[in-house]
Amino acid sequence: RVTVRNVDGVSPASGYGLIFHGEKPADGALEDYALLIYTGSDPQYQVVLHKNGVQKTLVPWTKTSIIRSGTSPNQLENRSQADELSFYVNGRYLTRITDTENNKRGVAGLYTSETSEVAFDDLEIVR
What we know:
10 strands, 5-stranded antiparallel sheet, mainly beta
């Protein structure tokens, strides 16, 4: 889990968030899952898979009032049990997916795009 905050109040159009079950192969193309949020005037989230340098949408952008907009902080969390991945924002359940890629590697990270300033704090990894 990690706390994220959009510093300037302008959310990156591609979102920002938490990467997990990742790996960086020798060719440099990341392979991971990511929970991304958009904190503009219409807050929403999506879940993506990065594989072979390509991003695939697993859960499309979904509007929710759980995500705080503007510069307010949000806590993102992923829970993994066997092949089930569950996603939470601010302690509230969003969605779940099945890990069809068997991504059990331990690389975790932070994701942002564009030039908007995003702050990440309180990263916690529990096994």
